[in-house]
Amino acid sequence: MKTLILNKYSKIDFKTRKFKYLSIDETYKLIGNNLRNLRKLYGFTLKELSEISGINANYLGNIERAQRKPTLYTLNQLAYIFNINVNTFFSYTKEKIPEKEILMNKILAILKTKETKDIRKIFALIKKLYP
Q: Domain residues of the chain, as ranges?
């Protein structure tokens, strides 16, 4: 092992035995990888995530490849969709999320984009299915 990741912002390089902070490019790669992992974990295509979040699919793909630098506003929109904290995008930890929670969050992500009247209809359907 040549590098030990200490936390989301720093690492130790064993080759040089020096402590260093992540570069800006490394940080954007981390954000992109975490976005891709979350999107795949939730089973969204780029197009589906684009429709739900209102963020252009090409832009999302560029963020995932670290070719574009997302604003905090964009990260906040995505965090809202995934029902996570923004700081999750800056973390190296891969969370194991139970399938039930993933499905509930997917439903919630879709509902967040709907009008109140549509949510009432969906709620009425659920009540009929599960009295």
A: 22-129
Helices 24-41 and 57-64 meet at what angle, rounded to 10? Answer: 120
Task: Write the pLDDT tens digit of every residue in 63-103.
Answer: 999 999 999 999 999 999 988 899 889 887 666 778 888 88
pLDDT of residue 112: 86
Q: Which amino acid, 31?
A: I
**Which class does domain 22-129 fall in?**
mainly alpha
- How many residues comprise the chain? 131
Instruction: Please state the φ and ψ torsions of residue 123, each to the nearest 5 degrees.
Output: -60, -40
From residue 48, alpha-carbon distances to 3, 69, 81, 103 in Å are 36, 21, 12, 15
β-bridge partners, 13: 3, 18
Closest CA to 26 of 43, 7, 9, 13: 9
pTM: 0.73
Q: Distance between CA atoms of 108 and 15, rounded to whole angstroms? A: 46
Distance in angstroms (rounded) separating the CA atoms of residues 105 and 110: 9
